[in-house]
Design a protein that fits this description.
The complex is a heterotetramer of chains A (about 290), B (about 350), C (about 280) and D (about 400).
Chain B lengths: L1 H28 L5 H25 L7 H16 L2 H7 L14 H23 L4 H20 L4 H4 L5 E2 L8 H18 L2 H11 L1 H6 L4 H27 L1 E2 L6 H14 L4 H16 L11 E2 L2 E2 L7 H16 L12 H18 L1
Antiparallel strand pairs in B: 1-2, 3-4
Helix pairs in contact in B: 2-8, 2-11, 2-12, 2-13, 3-5, 3-6, 3-11, 5-11, 9-11, 12-13
Chain C lengths: L3 E12 L2 E12 L3 E5 L6 H8 L7 E6 L2 E6 L5 H4 L16 H7 L1 E3 L12 H8 L8 H5 L4 H17 L15 H14 L4 E5 L7 H17 L3 E5 L3 H7 L2 E6 L2 E6 L1 H6 L1 H13 L1
Parallel strand pairs in C: 3-8, 3-9, 6-7, 7-8
Antiparallel strand pairs in C: 1-2, 1-4, 4-5, 9-10
Helix pairs in contact in C: 4-7, 6-7
Chain D lengths: L1 H23 L8 E9 L6 H17 L2 E4 L2 E11 L4 H13 L4 E3 L4 H13 L4 E3 L14 E3 L4 H16 L3 E7 L3 H16 L3 E7 L7 H9 L4 E3 L4 H13 L6 E3 L6 H7 L6 E5 L8 H16 L1 H6 L8 H20 L4 H7 L4 E4 L2 E4 L11 E7 L4 E8 L3
Parallel strand pairs in D: 1-3, 1-4, 4-5, 5-6, 7-8, 7-9, 9-10, 10-11
Antiparallel strand pairs in D: 2-3, 11-14, 12-13, 14-15
């Protein structure tokens, strides 16, 4: 029991970070599935969501500002797509990706400008930010809630993609962009929807994440973003369940590594894991094999 | 035709010579503290690494994001090997002087910087180079991050000084030095690109299957491009170390690679001159020209300019970047090169236009 | 009977349960023009891909100039799925990469044109010369291979001359009309100095006029370059005109072979293939 | 669209030239001669908060004493502030930016890494620098142009080690540093040395840049059964560590260096059960008129200036670094007066003799260019009021 008790914190932290990564990773993986674009700005959208909560919370009660921020994030996601990616549909893939990097720069620097380089602290959301005790391990309630929230959202998302019209359209587009277009699928609305959904999830992810780790700096989106992206690749980029599983694996391993005292490598390990997987499955756990027709 | 080619070649050499001359003269007349030289130094260093990345992403079509990692290897190799023995005790303060107790000459250090980077690139290349586009990208990015972590590991402190600064190694004062080294390296890369191997690289970029079917050994050529590119990344790393006078693993983040990638794409993927020009512009904008935007109390006459305060420079800068990316989708040079011949063609076109109007 | 250039024995190619080529045995002799015909999806291109090392066959082996270049037999889970004839004759595992095959002297063109799009006509051919280089990356970079470089350029120019592409040598290859692009692909293949040339639907998308030109052209290069040609083609008149022998595939299996006359009169072929053409 | 963009960017560059030129002229608005003092501080990045507080001290001092008499003529003191972004690779360009603006001497920086990185640039340009709170020995070691008015890490580390031993009777300490941060890594090293010399045992761990999840580290400290949690890291990390410590109900006391003497830490610790003690340069609530006048004056200054208030972290708690910045400014003026010249070389010559009685104590430099300081104040957080409590004056036995 002592062993269990002493190691529970790592496991809990792992599961919750895993869940939060998952929520970000979905954004990456969906966008990639449809546009074959690594949306580097996604991690920063995650950061913006947090900042908006912080700033709005000083004017209005949390129960207003939280949903508002989530919606606003969706709008940001939509705007980013329209401004930065839509004009580049026909351009080489590389320039779309550069546009993503540029966007990420812009968001970070805007945040830097607004916050004046000072760390902002996330308002503690009642209930979920309270500290509780499970099996003698103290932690925040959010740690326990996160995985469930994540799972629920995933299920909802998957069913959207499976059964709704837009979901079917998404699958069609990700299968074959041109054909879908020819078949009269309204590409732009589908893509926008993808970005909005991705951003919404990122926003919820950020609420969970920052209730736990309250410091928000302009670059705070970077590492979680990168990790989430790795998770997406890990699970086979383009596949939602893959992203989620990848995220949880990475989240948990990362914390175990820290627990073992290999703290220097807590980030690097994520990549070691990734590379090992890619060695044996070049397209990740659930990625569809790329076949080159001769 | 061939005669004009030779003439163009001569003219371009003359131009390059002129650039060197101008820099040399400027160093005499301007105060050596002028920001211009900072930009010229850093710009020339970034030009080299941008070109080396272009060799990979632009000419071989290998989408690699490992550049920062290889620069780190180069920078550390140079720093570790060239710190004078008498200063080591001070630098390796927590690791009683470090394990290396000798120092090599600068030239050797720079060369070894490249060699070490190339060696690691070779090893990394073996497993990852068969990965396809984005998977390759993220794998190389990962390796860069892993290298960074390893170099910060205090168990290796005797060698790398843990995560602490390395300093006191020989550095350069004149901007001519990085110019010369980068120029030399870039020249080699250009020669390579125009050689039969360079053509093979382009073939791989254009169509892997066809290239292989025409007898180009993919594995071998990809590894070649990867290793060579890393070699020069390593050298530029060494130069960067000299420029900064200190090295620390924590600065070689993936953000650095993104920066270089930005330079490459803004310059135009597959354009050497593009990479060079854009790297100078990039550095000048980010480090120099826009600084005034950070100055909170700027007045035009009596009018207090709004918005200006620390951080605004970066906002404007990133907006400029976005504008370039969106408006010049293929970069400022596209895949064209800035050449005498090109200028001549362009001029004659203009002239013809004029005649047409007349 | 002149010497055999290419020899395929019991070549079976299976993708999972799908049998693309089913124990195909064929041979091509020195100086012949052999055609491989059959309805779409009959496994013709797959056969080519096996020869050129793009796919490793599931079973069977390939000899080139009397030397074994490819061999394989079902292993692992393939054993269960395997549908072809497995007479245990083939035990080796020989899976060369396409470039190795090309080095041996087998060059090919592609069904869907695969030129190096950013390159000029001249460079497309010149790059193919890379295979026969003696320089290494160092000598090449520092121009210590000037002699070879010069020779390659001359050879390329000559090749373009023979194929009547010299006039457009500086154009970008994508700017050429379709017919010329196919011709350029052939030129590129020839630049690798092959003894066996595999043409994958060289006449696809050509009008009758171009097709007739192509007929003579293929004959011409066969003689000029002392080649052996094996081609996949749908234009029956072309096939019947220049083929010395014809193999007919249907659903991956060989249903007929022989001289054009024999094949034309083979009821199996008519049923499977020409018949449909008549109705069409 | 393209044209518009081109035009705009050209305008931008033109204005760049204009403004850049505008700053070059030698006389200020008042028409008096101008002496430029460079403020080399982080305004963003990990040490942004601290850097801003330090800058505040300098700005406040400048607002009180905007002129200095050098060699008989009055000069208007103009502060040239650059942001070194708390990162060693940006530091060099930031430093050369200052140099190119023609500053006579430089103040800063908060955070030792950037000071070390920028040091050579200043030395090469023969611009003397006065470190304010860069406590790593490397800053001044072998650099004749870098001086500093704060105590050093070996001293501070030892003080903290002693304190841990004497006050908490700690036998096992958990030391947490940030990878690649000379300040925290250095301070940990000296702490470990001293603490082990005292017969203690230390678990030393590091966290990579951009870490926001400290759960595992706090858990490690608990599991390893340590008696004190020693983490002299940046304020940003500090707040997160306190948060986690509180969440996991960390019972052991937290020890830290001068960085933690900041109202950010107070804010984070207020209303928690976390026991935090820090060593620092300065304590409020002294009766010394000089100090009281500084304290009151600065609080007025904050109240009058909204941005200053935000930069100070939204309240008028005075951080030690602010006091240090304040002193640094006056030390600089002393140096200018003594040198009777605005040339860096002259100033550097006289700096060793410069002395000044500041709000943080007497300031004088030893042969190494380091401040002669042998006392550090220890403060602990009062969790209920969210204020500092003076504990003791510590010095190395």
């Amino acid at each position: 029991m002592g062993f269990f008790q002493s190691n529970l914190p790592y496991l809990l932290a792992g599961i919750s970070t895993g869940g939060q990564y998952a929520l970000i990773a979905i954004g990456y993986t969906m966008v990639y599935g449809i546009l074959r674009l690594i949306n580097f700005a996604h991690g920063d959208v995650f950061m913006c969501a947090a900042l908006m909560v912080i700033y709005s919370a000083s004017y209005m009660p949390l129960y207003v500002s939280l949903p508002l921020a989530v919606i606003a994030t969706g709008v940001i996601g939509f705007a980013i797509e329209r401004v930065a990616y839509k004009p580049l549909r026909t351009a080489p893939r590389m320039s779309a990706m550069i546009s993503a990097i540029g966007m990420s720069y812009l968001l970070q620097n805007l945040a830097l400008y607004v916050t004046g380089g000072l760390t902002k602290y996330y308002p503690s959301v009642p209930f979920i930010a309270d500290s509780i005790e499970i099996f003698g391990a103290m932690t925040k309630r959010v740690t326990v809630i996160t995985p469930f929230v994540t799972i629920i959202l995933i299920v909802a998302l998957v069913s959207i993609i499976k059964y709704t019209k837009i979901g079917i359209a998404m699958r069609a587009v990700s299968r074959d962009f041109e054909t879908a277009q020819l078949m009269g699928v309204r590409i732009n609305s589908v893509i926008s929807a993808t970005f909005v959904i991705g951003s919404l999830l990122a926003a919820i992810g950020s609420i969970l994440f920052f209730s736990n780790y309250t410091g928000v700096t302009p670059t705070v989106g970077g590492m979680p973003g990168l990790k989430a992206f790795v998770a997406a690749v890990f699970g086979g980029i383009g596949s939602i369940p893959g992203a989620v599983i990848g995220a949880f694996i990475i989240g948990i391993c990362e914390n175990i590594i820290k627990g073992l005292g290999w703290t220097t490598f807590s980030d690097a390990f994520t990549f070691v894991l990734l590379i090992i997987v890619l060695m044996f499955m070049p397209t990740g756990l659930f990625g569809e094999k790329a076949t080159d027709k001769v | 035709m061939d005669k004009t080619k030779r003439r163009d070649l001569i003219i371009s050499f003359v131009l390059i010579a002129c650039i060197f001359l101008i820099v040399a003269v400027l160093e005499q007349i301007l105060p050596k503290t002028s920001m211009l030289f900072t930009v010229l130094k850093k710009g020339s260093i970034y030009a080299l690494v941008a070109v080396s990345m272009n060799l990979l992403n632009g000419f071989t079509g290998l989408f690699s994001l490992g550049q920062a990692g290889f620069m780190l290897l180069g920078a550390y190799t140079y720093a570790v090997l060239t710190i004078p023995v008498k200063s080591r005790a001070a630098v390796y303060q927590y690791y009683d002087g470090g394990i290396i107790q000798f120092a090599v000459p600068v030239a050797v250090g720079i060369l070894l910087a490249g060699v070490v980077a190339a060696f690691f690139a070779y090893l990394i290349g073996l497993p990852v180079l068969h990965l396809k586009s984005d998977y390759l990208a993220i794998a190389t990015l990962g390796f860069a991050e892993i290298i960074r972590a390893i170099f910060q590991w205090d168990k290796l402190g005797g060698l790398t000084n843990g995560s602490n600064l390395l300093r006191r190694f020989p550095i350069f004062r004149s901007a001519l030095f990085p110019f010369a080294v980068s120029g030399f390296c870039i020249a080699i890369i250009v020669l390579l690109i125009n050689s039969t191997y360079g053509r093979a690289f382009k073939a791989i970029r254009d169509d892997e299957v066809a290239a292989e079917a025409m007898g180009i050994n993919l594995a071998h050529h990809k590894r070649l491009a990867f290793t060579i590119s890393s070699f020069f990344a390593g050298i530029s790393g060494a130069l960067l170390a000299m420029f900064q006078t200190t090295v620390q693993a924590s600065q070689f983040k993936s953000a650095m690679t993104y920066e270089i990638l930005l330079i490459v794409v803004i310059g135009g993927i597959g354009s050497i001159t593009g990479s060079c020009i854009s790297s100078f512009l990039f550095i000048a904008c980010s480090e120099w020209w826009l600084r005034f935007l950070d100055n909170a109390d700027t007045y035009i006459g009596g009018f207090h300019v709004p918005l200006l305060r620390p951080g605004f420079r970066k906002v404007v800068f990133s907006i400029v970047i976005m504008a370039i990316v969106l408006l010049y989708q293929r970069g400022i040079m596209g895949d064209k090169e800035f050449s005498i011949e090109g200028i001549r063609k362009w001029l004659s076109k203009k002239l013809r236009k004029k005649e047409a109007h007349a | 009977m002149s010497s055999t250039v290419l020899e395929m024995n019991d070549i079976t190619m299976q993708f999972g349960g799908v049998v693309a080529v089913n124990s195909l045995t064929m041979h091509v002799d020195q100086g012949e023009i052999v055609s491989l015909i059959g309805p779409n999806g009959a496994g013709k291109t797959t056969a080519f891909n096996v020869i050129t090392g793009v796919y490793a066959p599931t079973n069977g082996n390939v000899f080139f100039m009397g030397k074994k270049i490819v061999e394989n037999h079902p292993v692992g889970k393939m054993k269960k799925l395997y549908a072809g004839t497995d007479n245990g004759k083939y035990t080796g595992h020989l899976e060369p990469t396409p470039d190795q095959i090309t080095k041996l002297g087998i060059a090919r063109t592609f069904q869907n044109i695969r030129l190096w799009k950013s390159q000029s006509v001249f460079d497309n051919v010149l790059i193919a010369k890379h295979l026969r280089r003696t320089s290494n990356v160092f000598t090449a970079t520092f121009r210590l291979n000037a002699v070879e470089e010069k020779r390659q350029r001359e050879e390329t120019a000559e090749l373009l001359n023979i194929l009547g592409l010299y006039g457009v040598k500086d154009n970008n290859c994508t700017s050429l009309p379709y017919g010329l692009q196919r011709r350029l692909e052939i030129a590129r293949a020839l630049a690798t100095e092959p003894t066996l040339l595999l043409l994958d639907e060289p006449a696809a998308g050509m009008n009758p006029q171009e097709t007739i030109e192509l007929t003579d052209f293929i004959g011409k290069i066969r003689d000029d370059f002392k080649l052996t040609v094996c081609m996949i083609e749908h234009h029956m008149d072309l096939v019947m005109n220049i083929s010395d022998r014809i193999y007919v595939l249907n659903f991956g299996a060989l249903i007929s072979k022989g001289t054009p006359a024999e094949v034309q009169s083979d009821p199996a072929v008519i049923a499977a293939y020409l018949g449909e053409e008549k109705n069409a | 669209m393209k044209k518009l963009f081109v035009v705009l960017s050209i305008l931008l560059l033109v204005s760049a030239v204009v403004f850049a030129g505008g700053e070059k002229e030698g006389t200020g608005a008042s028409g008096a001669k101008v002496v430029k003092i460079g403020v080399y501080e982080p305004a963003s990045g990990d040490n942004g908060a601290g850097g801003k507080q330090e800058t505040l001290g300098i700005q406040y001092a400048n607002s009180i004493t905007p002129t200095v008499n050098i060699g008989g003529t009055d000069y208007e003191v103009q502060l040239v502030i650059v942001d070194n972004e708390s990162s060693n690779d940006k530091a060099v360009t930031a430093a050369s930016e200052l140099v190119s603006k023609g500053v006579s001497l430089v103040l800063g920086s908060y955070g030792s890494g950037v000071s070390i990185a920028g040091g050579d640039t200043f030395a090469n340009a023969e611009v003397p620098a006065i470190g304010v709170t860069c406590t790593n020995p490397q800053v001044t070691l072998g650099n004749d142009w870098y001086y500093r008015i704060c105590f050093l890490d070996p001293f501070q580390g030892t003080v903290l080690a002693n304190y841990a031993k004497d006050t908490f009777g700690a036998k096992k300490a958990y030391a947490l540093a940030k990878l690649g941060d000379d300040y925290s890594v250095g301070l940990c090293n000296y702490f470990i040395k001293a603490f082990e010399a005292l017969g203690g045992e230390v678990i030393y761990e590091t966290f990579p840049e951009g870490t926001s999840d400290f759960a595992a580290y706090v858990a490690n400290a608990k599991n390893k059964g340590c008696d004190v949690f020693y983490s002299p890291v940046s304020i940003e990390a500090a707040a997160l560590i306190i948060e986690q410590a509180n969440t996991q109900g960390l019972t052991m006391p937290i020890l830290a260096g001068d960085t933690w003497d900041s109202n950010v830490v107070l804010g984070a610790a207020k209303g928690t059960k976390v026991d935090i003690s820090v060593t620092t340069f300065f304590v409020e609530g002294s009766t010394d008129p000089q100090i009281t006048s500084f304290v009151d004056g600065f609080k007025k200054y904050l109240a009058s200036n909204q941005t200053a208030m935000t930069n100070n972290g939204g309240n008028d708690e005075i951080a030690a670094v602010t006091a240090m910045g304040f002193d640094a400014y006056y030390t600089a003026l002393e140096a200018l007066k003594k040198a009777g010249s605005t040339k860096g070389a002259d100033i550097q010559k006289v700096l060793p003799e410069v002395t000044y009685k500041g709000v943080s104590g007497d300031i004088a430099f030893d042969e190494n260019g380091d401040a002669v300081r042998n006392v550090a104040y220890v403060k602990k957080v009062d969790n209920t009021t969210g204020k500092w409590q003076f504990v003791s004056v510590q010095s190395v036995k």
